[in-house]
Amino acid sequence: MGWTVPIRQASFRGVKFDVITVDDSFERDTVEHAYPYVNGADIEDLGLTPRTVTFEAIFNGPGYLTDVKRLLAALQKPGADTLTHPIFGRMQNMICRSMSLRHDADYINYASVGLTFVETTPAKPIFLFEFSIFGKIDALLSMLEDFVDDILDFYAAMMEVVSFAFNVKDRLLGAWGGIYSIVDAVSQLIDDMSLDLPTLVTQTTFQSQSSRVVAKLANELDYAIKTRAGINDMIDDDIVTQTKNDVTSRTNITQTKYNARQRNTYTTSSTKHNTATTGLLYNQDRFNDALNLVRQLQQVADDIVTGKNDSYAREQTRIKSRVTALSKEDVKEIDCAIKLISTTTLAHLTAQLIADEIDNLLPAEIEYMITTIRTLLQDCINTVRTLQKEKQNYQTLNDKETARYTSAYRVIEQLRQISRDLTALAINAINQKPPIIIREAPITGTLQQIAHAFYQDYTRTDDLLRLNPQIINPNFIEKGALINGYTV
Q: What ranges do the domains of the chain cover?
């Protein structure tokens, strides 16, 4: 069965050309292993050679030379691209290896072009370097820091709609009263936090002042959440900067940060801990302390609307802001901003925690932290989508609604990317450690003796103690007890 028309079209980099013949070919590389006194040979398959496609293209008509120049310009660009085959359709990663242009005096306004395309297969990394995980962590931390700016842009876009649409004074004061009340409630959760807010706003100043408040709030929340987990950025950054000046090795920088963390202490709401004397769940406790604060922050808006745990100070705030009662409509934007900021800060903290404590974190701890963050990120996506899909019954809001929709879409896509990167980071961090297996204690004795029996190294006791939280008395392990441990 032949072609229905004598000429078919192909294209490369969007430039179309007519073809009259197409040849597709590939070969298989093999090696023959022949042996004396054995008939035949053992053929070793080394894989397929690159697929090769050869065209004979033609250009004719008064404007043929313009089309030829367009194709030449596309072929001269470096790198691979998509080739549209007249029979097999789209073919990815194709490179033009050769081209020949032929003119014949017997044919006016006509040229034939011979094209040879070869499929390229991107090389895969052969070696996995021990500290490649730190490159992933640095990229994720940079993304999270930039994402805070996108959150502020999204909030500004929402406030632009509010300031334009709320031409009724009570509605405008209601939105500002929601901001005022939430800031007051957050200041009660966070020590040493003070934000001076104007009591009243106007329609022209509402957007700028509310955006300024959220920007200051983001800085306060970032400091408070990381402090709750015992991460002192100022000390660590100074130490790392000094180390970068002396040693360019990424390994030494990370080790310096780890040593600095070992000398620090962190304080929860009720107890002070030191890494040298803390129990096995020290790192998970740090994460849980920060997580509890994040959940309290994300519950503030609901508590204000429902009146739960309403304090005298908050009642005074409502009087100052001329608001007698707040509704969900008044706090939905600031509530969304706090969820995004607090969750992003917790994700940033988790990435830092993995970088600093990767040698001490258990796979179960890493899985718990990443799963919790992913759940919070999904809740943020749902909240943003609710605001994105909400239909406003205001007039002439087309441009502003478009800006808000675009900002929301960008925030959602970045939240999804952060979730994917955190998952990849967790997998990479877990794969840094040997596999865990369950073995029976070969003797009755102390955990140090069990470590020596497993690894011929009694100093591995700490590893066994971290991997076996069920052990109550490490000085007596009965023979046959099931012990979690690394394979090597």
A: 8-32+42-119, 132-431, 436-486
Q: Which fold has domain 8-32+42-119?
A: Elongation Factor Tu (Ef-tu); domain 3 (2.40.30)
**Of residues 381, 366, 364, the one with CA closest to residue 469:** 364
**Distance (Å, whole) CA 326 – CA 177:** 8
Dist. CA 4–CA 8, nearest whole Å? 9
**How would you class 474 by CB atoms within 10 Å of its CB: exposed for 0-12, middle for 13-18, buried for 19 or more?**
middle
Output the pLDDT for position 268. Answer: 39
As beta bridge partners, residue 119 has 94
Q: What is the DSSP letter of 445?
A: B
Closest CA to 13 of 89, 88, 94: 94
* Three-state DSSP class for residue 273: strand
C-alpha distances (whole Å) from 220 to each of 89, 151, 186, 190, 416 are 55, 15, 10, 9, 25
Q: What is the pLDDT of residue 338?
A: 87
Are the C-beta atoms of 25 and 15 separated by less than 8 Å? Answer: no
Closest C-alpha to 92, from 182, 12, 151, 19: 12
Q: Indicate the range of 36-50, 75-89, 133-147, 258-272 predicted with least confidence.
A: 258-272
Per-residue HEC secondary structure of 86-142 comes to CCCEEEEEEEEEEEEEECCCCCCCEEEEEEEEEECCCCCCCCCCCCHHHHHHHHHHH
What is the per-residue DSSP string for 15-82? EEEEEEEEEEE--EEEEEE--TT-SS-EEEEEEEPPPEEEEEEEEESTTHHHHHHHHHHHHTS-S-EE
Bridge partner residues of 438 (DSSP):
484
d(Cα 85, Cα 95) in Å, to the nearest integer? 13
Q: What is the DSSP letter of 242?
A: H
Tell me the average pLDDT across 442-462.
88
Which segment of 58-67, 259-268, 474-483 scores lowest on mean pLDDT?
A: 259-268
68 contacts 111 by C-beta, under 8 angstroms:
yes
Greatest C-alpha distance within the chain: 103
pLDDT tens-place string over residues 121-170? 877 655 544 446 667 777 777 888 888 887 877 777 776 665 555 444 55
- DSSP string across 61-76: STTHHHHHHHHHHHHT
The beta strand positions in 240-323, using DSSP E, are: 265-267, 272-274
Contact between 130 and 255 under an 8 Å Cβ cutoff? The reply is no
Residue 267: per-residue pLDDT: 39
CA 127, CA 194: separation in Å to the nearest integer? 51
3-state secondary structure of 440: strand
pLDDT at residue 336 greater than cutoff 60:
yes
